[in-house]
Every structure is written in C-alpha cells, then in structure tokens.
Amino acid sequence: MEFCPHGSLYSLLEQPENSFGLCEDEFLRVLIHVTAGVKHLRDNDIIHRDIKPGNILRSVAADGRSVFKLTDFGAARELQEDEEFLSLYGTDEYLHPDMYERAVLRKSRGQQFGSYVDLWSLGVTFYHTATGSLPFRPYGGRKNKDTMFRITAKKEHGVISGVQEVQDGPIRWSRDLPATCALSRGLQLLITPFLASLLEKDPEKMIGFDEFFAQVDDISQRNSYDVFCPSSFSMLKVYTRPRDDMSLLRQLITDQTDIPGGAQLLLHDGKVLCDESRSSVASSLSQVSADSPIFVFNRLPEYKPFFKPAYGSFLDVPPETSLDTDYLLSKRNFAVLHAVRNCVKSLLLRNSLMTRAVNMYSAYV
C-alpha cells in the first residue's frame, strides 16, 4: 500500500490559509482526481458510501503538485446503478437526507438506498473544498440533528447551501457560492450548477453517474484565460472548450462583465484581438497568464461597478481567556488575515495591470 505522508483533504482544509476554500488549481485537482477514483469504482459496480475529505488522502508528485486519492473502502460494496441497499454507513454531515433520517434520526426503517448516495456525498465534499465550510449548517452543528435534516430535506431545487446562524433562527439559503470563495467567477459559473445537480434530495432530479463524469470531463478539458477589465478593476478567468472560437470567448467575457461582445476591445501584449476567422481561441492565443492577461476595454461610455474584495470579518477577542473558544477564535482570525493578504496581493497586481492598461490603450488610440 502506498504511503501518503501529507495528510488528508480534511487536514488541508483545516489549515488557516484554506479556511475559505482551496485555490483554483488545487480545487480542480481534487475534482479531477476524486472523480477518477469514483469512476474506477463505478466501472467495477462498487459504491463507496463514506466519501468525505477525511477519506481523501494527499501525496505530492515529483513536480510538487498535489495528488488526491480516494481511500477507506470499509463501507464499500458492489451495487449496480439500478440496485438498492439497506445497511447504514457514512458520516453525518455528508449523508444523503434519506440515509440521515434513518441512520441519525432513527426513522423510516426499512427504507432502501441507491448508488445516488455517493453523488450527494461528492456534492457536499466538493462544496466543502471550494468554500472551506459545509453547505448545510444548523446552529450548534452536528448535535442539532432535527434542524440538520430539515435543512437538507426541505431545501428548494437549485439551492446549494443553508445556514442557521442563531438558535431557532431562520435558515439563510443560497444558490451561489459565498463571496469569500477563492474560485474565480468563471469557474464558479461552471461549478455552481454542477453542485446543484448533485445536492438534490430527489434521486429523480439528481444527475446520474454518466452525466456526473461527463460534466467533470467537460470542466477538466477546458482552457482557462486570464482577463483584466480596467473599467471595473476586476480580474477574470474564462474557461473555453478546445474548439471554442473568439466569438464564444467574447460571450464568456460578457457573462462576467455585462459588456456586449460588439463593445469589447480586446488587447493582448499590445495587439488587438480580432475574431473575423473561425479559428479556435487556443490557436489564436498563447502565453496568457495572470501577469500577462487579455485586457478588455468597454467601447461604450457607461459605468461598471468597481471590484470590491471579500475576505470575511474578524471576530472580537474577549478580554478573558477560554480554552473552549480561544482556538476557534484564533483560527478564524488567522483565516481572515490570510484572506486579507491574498486580497492585497491581488490588488497590487491589478494596480500594476491598470498602469499597463492605460499605456496600452494610449498606444492604441
């Protein structure tokens, strides 16, 4: 058996710098590597039944990149996609609501479950990886079992998170990832509907494994391009399919900036990007990076909302010490400090790009 000396995905998410989720590249590695492990299981008609960050180990390849491996098959069993099972396994926060109702609340005895329970656990795991938090959180956490079930079982179609912030308080529902999520807006546009299709209580509305694998393949095969928009001081990432042409690139930029394709002036390395030909973006562009992005200027004289960084909020430090709360309070504030540091680095890069944008546009006109 291979030795994985770098802990689990859970231990990685517990580090303060990852408290608001993993960076984009690392998140995509988790998505691709875990999906490859699940596909191997399904190719052999096996379900895992306890997918969670703690059961995903991390090793580091020779090039320094993380490799994530699905482990702990103590609850795994053979099961065709159209078959069902009765036995109960899993971890509370990652359980499908039907399993949670029977395993934790001790209700609905005799109910059977299908392979879809792994898809729900994958949805919770990927949300946790993207945001650093569980998607469904009752006040008081695990011990508030009835509210936990109510959140997961009663949420509306398309909702990907539900949080109760005060005891017996209302549930704050969301169809979007939180503002503190480290993923780019471009990747969020792909990931959010993907998560929504996994976090469906009704198996009839949830995607099947074939569609799950197809969606992950589509995301993993896309090329990403960094884009800087001076009018909103925003850094974007657009994800194109290998055969997408420049007109589709403009549409993806429109989706994130609301600048119509015909009003976009695209410059890269001082040169105007045209889309008269139907050649692919991949063949038209090279060496695009955060330090050398595509610059998109708005030809229309209209105002666009300016970029506003999101990094969470510091918790007040009480004058008295408490062993029960000081660790969590310190961890939270360290997490916000890491987020502030990342925002400062991003703002400094944007400031440098703004200077280049002015010089580039001046040369163009």
Looking at this protein, list some descriptive labels.
alpha+beta; 365 residues; 38% helix; 15% strand; three-stranded mixed β-sheet; 14 strands; Ubiquitin-like (UB roll); five-stranded mixed β-sheet; 10 helices; Transferase(Phosphotransferase), domain 1; globular
Walk me through the structure:
- The strands form five sheets. The protein has a five-stranded mixed β-sheet with strand order 11-10-14-12-13, with helices on both faces. A three-stranded mixed β-sheet has the order 7-8-9, with helices on one face.
- The longest helix has 39 residues, at 326-364.
- The chain has 365 residues and is an alpha+beta fold.
- Helix 2 (24-43) runs antiparallel to helix 7 and helix 4 (116-131) runs antiparallel to helix 6.
- It folds into two domains: 9-220, Transferase(Phosphotransferase), domain 1 (Orthogonal Bundle), CATH 1.10.510.10; 228-307 and 345-364, Phosphatidylinositol 3-kinase Catalytic Subunit, Chain A, domain 1 (Ubiquitin-like (UB roll), Roll), CATH 3.10.20.
- A hairpin with a 6-residue loop joins strand 8 and strand 9.
- The N and C termini lie far apart (63 Å).
- The protein has ten helices and 14 strands.
- The radius of gyration is 23 Å and the shape is globular.
- Keywords: ATP-binding, Cytoplasm, Kinase, Nucleotide-binding, Serine/threonine-protein kinase, Transferase.
- Pfam families: Pkinase, TBK1_ULD.
- Residues 1-228 form the Protein kinase domain.
- This is Protein kinase domain-containing protein.
- Its main location: cytoplasm.
